[in-house]
Fold these 2 entries.
Entry 1:
Amino acid sequence: MAALGAALIVFLFWTGSFLALRWAGDALSPPPGTSPSRVPFLGGRGPGTHAWSRFHVRYYAMALVFLAFDMEMVFMYPWAVVFLEEGLMAGFEMLMFISILVLGILYGWREGAFRWA
Amino acid sequence: MGVRSALATLAAGAPTPAFVLAGAGGRWAAEQLWLEPRIAPALSPRAADALVVVGYLTEALLPAVILAHDQIPPPRLAFQWLPDGAPDDPLAGMVPGVRVVEGGSLVEVVRDAHAGLLAGRGDGHGDAWPDVEPAPWRGIGPYGQGGKGMTGGVPYGRPLTGRADDRDGLKLDRLDVRVGPVFPAFPPGLELIVGLQGDVAQEVAVGENPFEGGPASGGVFALALRKAVPIAELEVARARSHLRWLAGALRVAGLPSLGRRVLALAARAGPGDLDRVARLRRSLERGRGLAWLAGGVGSAREDVGGPVGRAAGHASDARAGLAEYRALGFEPLVHEGGDALARWRQRVAEAEQSLRLAGAAGDATVGPLDVVEGPRGPLGPAPLLELLPGLVAGMEWGDLVTTVVSLDLDLEEAAARAGVPA
């Protein structure tokens, strides 16, 4: 019961802090300004189109490759746990796995997958 | 003495953030403000407390200036600087609350008004344009955009972007944005209409020149068309022009302190500064950072004359045909490549060459000439503005800015040149 009370106090404290900060932010910030002053600054002209558009993230291929290799790191955690017990055999197995990945990187490199799109 | 006034006193000690923009005839005076420690030129009106227009306004420049004025967060100040004894600017009254300052007292006036503003005095004046949305919120459609689905309608009076083919085979939104004419990284008055997909400028067009129809600018180069002028004077003016360009280019490249030092050198450069300019040239030739920034960017191989043509290996220089220059041992300098890097190196090398010529020329004069080689090529129609759209199409934004800066465009001169017969 004491734990529940403590949790409630923590919850109330952080909710209160959050609301206080929100209020302070609103109270301190200047008024939002007029419509002409809110348009983005492009050097003296207003925008021709609405900002609601799909912006091309040109690093997306790079991001996917990064994610793929990042996920492969997950396999190395259980391997690291049993590495000392299994000995050299586990070392070779991981070396094989990594070599295949490196071949994949070299292939992607040759195909130009890492060039900035 | 409350906390508020103590803070105001502290704030008044800091440099005044000002959005400085150059009107007709004010480009170099506006540049000089970068040397002023009590003024901090801002790169956007949102970061400024004051608008400072240097020179004359034109009808075409006025809407951009007024929008920049409204985008400075209130309370704000507005100033216009005109040379001493110059006629009034009939358009000055169109910028609300603007205070016209003549002659050398601009910085003092701005500082006084800013200190007053921080202390709660003064006239933080209102907006020029009314607070009216271009189109009211209509509340139609799932997001209130006035249409169906995510792609319909005209939210807030602005159409959504259309889609177009991208260079990687996708069909993506193409934003048409107009950048300029008071964009700080561009030469004053340059407006580009850019079709952007992501950060790639798919299509670029040059907007109207706001200085069109303005008075022809003078200067020693235009004078040489009509009468004899000292070679030393011409060459010092050329070296200063190149160094001023270098200062601005360094600032845009993200080296404002170095740019400020070069600008201070440009203001007083003479034959005695030959060593300093030579050191500058050597450091630019050795520097890897510049090669990384500008190497291979914006190659223009055409013979367009001037430093841009000579940076592409074309030894065309109107001075080469003059006996007065040949007597001084003049030969046109050229660089290979024609990219932005070659143009940087070309101008600095020419600045050094000009100072050497000025030192050797003594009292020799030249002129009146039929063709005068100015710092941007022979006076007359300038082909660089027509060259620009083809040069920068397909570039990423950073390369586009590097290329535009490396061309050393001067729209005021281009407007005046239209009136000079070739």
Entry 2:
Amino acid sequence: MVRFPAGPRRTAVAAAALLSLTGLAACSDGGGSAAVPGGGAAKGAADELVAAAPVAASLPAGSTMEKIKKRGQLIVGGSLDAPLLSQQNPGTRKVEGLDADFGRLLAKYIIGKPEVKIVNSASETREALLANGTVDVVLQTYSITPERAKKVAFAGPYFSSGLVIATKKDKQGIAKPADLNGKTVIAGANTPAIAAVKKAAPQAKIITFGSDPECTQALKQGRGDAYVQDQAVLLATAKQDPEVRIQGGPFTADPYGIGLKHGDAQMKQFVNDWLKTIQASGLWAKTWKNSIGTVVQGDAPQPPAIGSAPGSE
Amino acid sequence: MDVITRHLPEFGAGLLQTVELSLLALAGALVAGVVVAALRAAPVAVLRGAGMAYVEILQNIPLLVWLVLAVFGLPEIGVTAGLFTTAVVVIALYQGAYVAEAVRSGINAVPVGQGEAARALGLTFTQSLRLVILPQALRTVVQPLGNLAIMTIMNTALAAAVGLVELTAAANRVNLAEADPIWIFVTAGLCYMALSALTGLVSGVLERRLVILR
């Protein structure tokens, strides 16, 4: 999946629409300094992760990493509204989720402290933000594709997700992608679901909405027969909403990479080494348990092999 | 550049959707606008109040909020229409408020003597409005209406947020596959510019043909 703003969920989407507008405003003023864990309050599992995280032994002189360390802060392009992945907790103002945790761990590896500043990015702006140096890395469910690899460098993949099909709970006859032919399929604007549905079910009619709550509402209001979305997002949705049911497992493999400035081979190597380190030490699995693992039963999956996705070599 | 040529069908379909949306919304906006402007000029206080309430309510809530309310809110109370229909109606009603204000300024520009003469001839309010005032009023505001037509075209881009694949959404989808935002959105921008240039040209010609020299 690409970027997916998910605002507050309300039965009356009328209210949700207005709320998400105010939510956006709240995000933009909180985006500046929000990601650093607070001092005394709410020492959670994420802090234990950070405490157990490794710090790089040395940084190559003149490298991007050294600049980041000098600055004392890792600037991450990310979301503040993606449940389970990177969502700001309105109570603690802390950003929680898989991507947010990885950002803090990477910051600790480079700087020694989990100092992260999240710059709210979008799927339209990520390449530009990396190219002009506004952000150091992008950790935002950034699917690795060969086309994008021409504009940015991808470390990873650090997580492998995939698209799943959701329907209303009483819907029959949609279990696999081919069943979507001739049906109206809802997808998030700017998500790979659009291309994937076109490929798997060429006769499907696709309609898109801007955010996950809108897509879910459209599904429940019968504007489409099915909703195709990233597994991580739909798991959170289906858990909260008993009317929505996930049909079958993922039908695509969607490797998420850490976006870096195009051509920065040194940093890519550095981040890949860090990923290998935390995968080997079991920290990766703990990070998974801390976010996705709170809604998925069982042990953490096998992390994807570094460099395995086309575009991340 | 070949990014564009490879995706011409998508751009074409998006452009067509934008044009359809604009033309239908504009037609609706003109009808709504003239009716509301007539209400605001009516001799009955209740009608004037209704016209003013319409303009204030529609203009003071952003179009995107109206669109989201109509698309997701109306089905909650049992009113479900297609996405295209919903978008056309909402944009038409919204732009109608602006058209109403433009037409009202046209009505105000018609010399008072015209209305007095119409009444002196024994025309009813509706007759004087239809036969004397509005024809002159509309001919005065051709250029502002042209601007509103351009505004309508630009505002159709908001329909992308509620699931319509018009030009902006089409460009977004192409960009998703190609990750080449500069060329793709510049192309979309050029399409919008061409549409508004065409609209400006047409309204210019109409203005010169219809202008009333006083």
